[in-house]
Amino acid sequence: MEATVINVGYGDAILVETDDGYRLLLDGGSGLASEFEGDPYRIRSVDYLSKQQIGHLDAVVISHIHEDHVCGLEAVLQQTAVDHLYVPYPAEPFLQGCELMPANGVPRSVPLYTNALNAYRRILLYAKERGIPVTVLKTGDVLEFGTDARMRVLAPKNGVVDAYMEAVERAYRLADDPVAVTECLTRLDATSNHTSMLLSFELENTVFLSAADSCPREWNEVPKIFLENVNVLKLPHHGQIDSVSELFMKNMPLRYVITTSASDRRYNSANEQVYQQLTAMFPADRTPQFLFSDEREYPPYFSQPDGFQAIKLVMDSGKITPEFIKI
After folding, report:
1. Dihedral Cα 289, 295, 297, 303, nearest 10 deg
2. Which residues face 206 on adjacent strands?
3. Is there a contact between 137 and 90 (Cβ–Cβ < 8 Å)?
4. Which terminus of the chain is more solvent-facing, meaning fewer CB atoms within 10 Å of its CB: N or C?
5. Which residue(s) pair with 233 in the sheet?
6. Do 281 and 250 form a contact (C-beta atoms < 8 A)?
7. CA-CA distance, 15 to 2, in Å (whole number)?
8. Mapped to the 3 state alphabet, what secondary structure does 115-168 carry?
9. How far apart are CA 306 and CA 222, in angstroms?
10. Can you tell me the distance from the alpha carbon of 197 to that of 156, in angstroms, rounded to the nearest whole number?
11. Quick count: other Cβ atoms within 10 Å of Cβ 322?
12. Residue-level pLDDT at 106
């Protein structure tokens, strides 16, 4: 099994592949031109797939609704054949909804969230028009794929998605009331991370835990057995201070920890305190190696001065080998 973390700047786009050719894309990064302009190493997920001559995906998985996870997927679906779409929310309320717009003067995160909400709805409409099956994943679900590989849904907590969907449906009902819909969108933006799926990709004795924006405070309902066998961790929330927890991470047999933060470390992402805490959790001879999708130098944790468009983690027979992909 291979997990390729594409350098989409601030955002997630992870390609999971098995030896028998199964390909799954988890999230698609940002759709903002500003995230890629003037940077020779960041690359849109759709362009990465094209340059790697990947014209077909067995599955696309959406972890939750935020611009840096969803909006890049619209181009992927338009330019790539996709067999199946896996989502975290019931589709029908979105299909029956409409394009939403917040009022002027709100914090920047609210229109960005609204862009993602609208993009998510358009993705579902596109899937319906093209006959692409859509499956809603819930905590506890297991997707078997490839040969002996599986994806297990460990979070969100029970009831979180239901509460979120009540707010989504309210936003659509109030679409003609700028003040009321803006209040709904602001609430949805603030709570979307709580609905983020926590996904465990498992092959034999190797486990890759991809946390999207599911932070450890959301993990108390996860059975401990699924958090004590993790070899590779994609840090939640782009390595912000809420991404780390000794309670859950100190018992993980971690070999690699990867952070999908932009190199400008906006919003205090790729926070140095996080790596100090992680380092302190493990004996010196068992400290995991830190990887960063959009860094070239992060002393003393990481150095890859040549730059790269993706990091591929090759997991085979218990061995894990990182490869830096430069296109």
Report:
1. 40
2. 203
3. no
4. C
5. 209, 257
6. yes
7. 8
8. HHHHHHHHHHHHHHHHCCCEEECCCCCEEEECCCEEEEEEECCCCHHHHHHHHH
9. 39
10. 6
11. 16
12. 94
In tens, the pLDDT along 253-297 reads 999 999 999 999 999 999 999 999 999 999 999 999 999 999 999
User: Residue 66 CA to chain centroid, in angstroms?
Assistant: 10
DSSP strand pairing (85-87 vs 59-61): parallel
Over residues 156-185, the pLDDT tens digits come to 998 999 999 999 999 999 999 999 999 999
What confidence tens digit (pLDDT) does each residue in 203-259 have? 988 999 999 999 999 999 999 999 999 999 999 999 999 999 999 999 999 999 999
Distance CA 208, CA 224 (A): 15
Token pair 């959009």 is at which residue?
A: 294
Nearest to 260 by CA among 230, 289, 240: 240
Cα separation values, 17 from 1, 21, 28, 54, 189, Å: 6, 6, 16, 11, 31
Tell how strand 206-210 and strand 198-203 pair up. antiparallel
The pair of three-digit structure tokens given for residue 239, joined into one six-digit string:
């390595």
For 48, the token pair is 């990465």
Phi-psi region of 220 (alpha: psi -120 to 50; beta: other; left: phi over 0): alpha
| Surface-to-core class of residue 144, CB atoms within 10 Å of its CB (0-12 exposed, 13-18 middle, 19+ buried) | exposed
Cβ(57)–Cβ(25) below 8 Å = yes
Q: Are 49 and 61 in contact (CB under 8 A)?
A: no
